[in-house]
Design a protein that fits this description.
- The chain has 487 residues and is an alpha+beta fold.
- Among the domains are: 8-92, Uridine Diphospho-n-acetylenolpyruvylglucosamine Reductase, domain 2; 99-217, Uridine Diphospho-n-acetylenolpyruvylglucosamine Reductase, domain 3, CATH 3.30.465.10; 219-335, Alpha-Beta Plaits (2-Layer Sandwich).
- It is 31% helix and 20% strand.
- Helix 7 packs antiparallel against helix 9 (300-311), helix 8 packs across helix 10 and helix 11 (359-373) packs antiparallel against helix 12.
- The longest helix is centred in the last third of the chain and has 18 residues, at 408-425.
- The two termini are 28 Å apart.
- The structure holds flavin-adenine dinucleotide.
- Residues 34, 68-76, 79-80, 93, 113, 135-137, 139-140, 142-144, 146-147, 149-151, 202-203, 207-208, 338, 433-434 line the site of flavin-adenine dinucleotide.
């Protein structure tokens, strides 16, 4: 790789005009990630359109300059920020945000890559439609495609992949080839459905410039409950019971451990406290929604009362307690957890998934490991238990030593032990929904099988022969296991 030319900023300015460059004074929010990643780019640019973007990519290819895309910079694996080489160009999609078409009959929308989730939903709302990826951040569609965002209502609506009808991308090759299929067809088996190569691959194969997405009817009515299971082992059975009885009116099942809920209440005193002073070990936020018309509107609250009421009865009862209330109050607790946990100390986050039926056994084994080997840590896990996901977050309290700068070896040991447990004993994922980035590169190298990594590297070679785009390294030669990363 050659060093960036001294004429870089002049050259970029000639390609993009003065509005296309982000000034030094405005760098900070682009160069630091939400959770991981901080570095310095050789230049930060914001192309106005696809033509400008392609001219920059052709230039980077000719000059051997590395680059990567940034959307809203809400990614959680350090992939959306530069490394510290000062040799990468950060390409923000922040000027390519238009909602280009909205077709209520086809229930689809074509948007530019920088469009934010909130803007997409604001445009869809007058048609009683929405894009059903639901999370506590406001990402761009390009970033959501690149990470295949899941979110809280994934068990009902699926992830981004399931709601993606078409894509336009620019490849990192000599011509900055434009690949586009935005027809929005729901059935098309006339050849390779190549858009999937760009979903969940962290922008490593090319830059998304436009997407055609599927919209859904906004639920006309919702109902919610907090369900306290009798035991941890009952959790998948409760979810199965609800799913069988409610079909696709079941929109979310979010698990919250006692310490996670406590952290939310401590941090946000304005929250309603449904349990009084006695927070249970675990609760599931259950949400139902229906878009059926007023004439055939089912009594969602009544249905929920009936099903959960009977699950509380008898010697084999699955449910210990149920609290009914406003969905907004329950979601406020769920969405306060991240900030509450962060306020407790150093968060060591794990975005994992296992088969839903294996979640109780995984939690038991992981809790056992933590208590045995890392007793100073407090487990504050929560997450999308309806689809087998768990944000298995541990907190190292501020008042327990050693100091943060001396904790790295212990945290590295913890990460290795937990990811090994998840992948080898439970056949789970070390990155359930946040994708790949420098944070988990070492685990990818070590825990993904060699044939899977080899295939990925071969596709990468074809798409990006000079290995210029993205922040992930795909091995080209031998695929011997890499050492575990440090914290
Ligand atoms: C509070 C909070 C809650 C979250 N909850 C969830 C959750 O419930 N579920 C979930 O799945 N995620 C969640 N996330 C993670 C995050 O929001 C997603 O990964 C997000 O969709 C990334 O979108 P972005 O626009 O912010 O992308 P960025 O952070 O800017 O980039 C992320 C990756 O996408 C690439 N990229 C960005 N734009 C493009 C493009 N146009 N073309 C090609 N590659 C591109 C980047 O290079 C990088 O590799 C959460 C994050 C936060 C901060």
């Amino acid at each position: 790789m050659t060093a960036v030319p001294s004429s870089l900023l002049r050259d970029l300015s000639a390609l993009l005009g003065p509005k296309g460059l982000i000034s030094d004074a405005d760098r900070a929010p682009y160069e630091r990630g939400y959770r991981y990643g901080a570095g310095r780019a050789a230049a930060l640019i914001r192309p106005a359109d696809v033509d400008q973007l392609r001219s920059v990519i052709r230039y980077c290819h000719a000059q051997d300059i590395r680059f990567f895309a940034q959307g809203a910079n809400t990614g959680l694996v350090g992939a959306s920020t530069p490394d510290d080489s000062e040799e990468q160009i950060l390409i923000s999609l922040g000027h390519m945000t238009a909602i280009e078409t909205l077709d209520p009959l086809d229930r689809s929308m074509t948007v530019q890559a920088g469009a934010r989730l909130s803007a997409i939903n604001a445009a869809a709302a007058p048609h009683d439609l929405f894009f059903p990826i639901d999370l506590g951040a406001d990402p761009s569609i390009g970033g959501m495609v690149a990470t295949n965002t899941g979110g809280s209502r994934m068990m009902r609506y699926g992830d981004v992949r399931r709601n993606l009808l078409g894509l336009e991308v620019v490849l990192p090759d000599q011509d900055a080839t434009l690949l586009s299929n935005l027809t929005g067809l729901r059935k098309d088996n006339s050849g390779l459905d190549w858009k999937h190569l760009f979903v969940g691959t962290s922008g490593a194969f090319g830059l998304v410039t436009r997407a055609r997405i599927e919209l859904h009817a906004v639920p006309r009515r919702t109902a919610a409950a907090l369900v306290v299971p009798q035991t941890q082992a009952a959790v998948p059975h409760i979810i199965g019971l609800l799913e069988n009885a409610l079909g696709d009116s079941l929109t979310a099942c979010e698990g919250m451990s006692r310490r996670a809920m406590q952290a939310a209440f401590d941090h946000n005193p304005a929250l309603r406290r449904p349990f009084g002073g006695d927070i249970p070990d675990y609760a599931i936020l259950v949400e139902l929604g229906t878009s059926l018309s007023d004439r055939i509107m089912p009594d969602l609250d009544g249905i929920l009362v009936d099903i959960l009421g009977s699950a509380c009865e008898g010697p084999a009862a699955l449910v210990q307690d149920v609290l009914f209330g406003r969905a907004a109050d329950f979601w406020a607790i769920r969405h306060s957890i991240s900030d509450g946990v962060a306020a407790m100390g150093q968060v060591i986050a794990f975005d994992i998934s296992v088969q839903r039926s294996a979640l109780p056994a995984f939690r038991a084994a992981a809790i056992d490991l933590i208590e045995r080997e890392f007793p100073q840590l407090i487990l504050c896990d929560f997450g999308h238990c309806g689809d087998g996901g768990d944000h298995f977050n541990l907190v190292w309290p501020n008042d327990i030593g050693p100091a943060r700068e001396d904790r790295a070896p212990m945290i590295a040991r913890l990460r290795t032990a937990l990811y090994d447990l998840i992948t080898t004993e439970f056949h789970g994922s070390f990155s359930a929904e946040h994708g790949l980035g420098p944070y988990n590169q070492g685990f990818y190298d070590r825990l993904k099988s060699a044939p899977e990594r080899q295939l990925t590297a071969a596709i990468k070679d074809r798409m990006d022969p000079k290995n210029l785009v993205g922040n992930i390294r795909f091995e080209r030669g031998s695929l011997s296991p890499a050492p575990p990363p440090t914290a």
